[in-house]
Amino acid sequence: MTKRCGWVKMNNPLYVAYHDEEWGRPLHDDWKLFELLCMETYQAGLSWETILNKRQAFREAFHFYDAQKIAQMTDADLDGLLGNPDIIRNKMKIYATRANAQAFLKIQAEFGSFDHYLWSFVDFTPIDNPVKDYKQMPSKTPLSEKLAKDMKRRGFEFVGPVCVYSFLQAAGLVNDHEETCDFNSARKIIKRF
């Protein structure tokens, strides 16, 4: 029988697939990183399951996370999304998606890629934490506080240290799979929280 991290909701195939195929795998594709960051910002105050269930609708609403197109959306375009029952209709989060696309594009221009900017915070090597029980994982770390502060300075919104830590875990910059999880990558470098 396959062993997974204790937080996985086994009754939702989207949740299981997300854990098995995405969460904690080192991600280097700018488009996928941007989508994942947006999803993490939508989650603030909500469950991850809610966001996963609305993922496809978010993709359709936001031009499949084409940052150039999102950055050019008008207030009228964004206000129109407030009537879409298939997404989270929080005006601040919807407007933050445009602000984040604009900040994302500036980072790409400055660093060559969003990937390079992010991974520089971990010296281009995933941080591998020995997690025995997911309930013992921190909700934020000095790393997530540092990155959140820098991202806010660059114009990102809804990127507090808790959101950023979830993003780092999801994008594989931090490996927080439980040690007994079959999807835990090989532990080559151990760095503590």
Automatic annotation (TrEMBL):
Give GO BP annotations, semicolon-separated.
base-excision repair
Where along the chain is Zn(2+) bound? 5, 19, 177, 181
The reply to whether Secreted figures as a keyword in the UniProt entry is: no
Enumerate the GO terms in the molecular function aspect: DNA-3-methyladenine glycosylase activity; metal ion binding
- Report if keyword Metal-binding is assigned: yes
Identify the domain of life: Bacteria
Which UniProt keywords are given for this protein, alphabetically ordered? Metal-binding, Zinc
Which PANTHER family does the entry mention? DNA-3-METHYLADENINE GLYCOSYLASE 1, DNA-3-METHYLADENINE GLYCOSYLASE I
Protein name according to UniProt:
DNA-3-methyladenine glycosylase I
From which lineage does this chain's organism come?
Bacteria, Bacillati, Bacillota, Bacilli, Lactobacillales
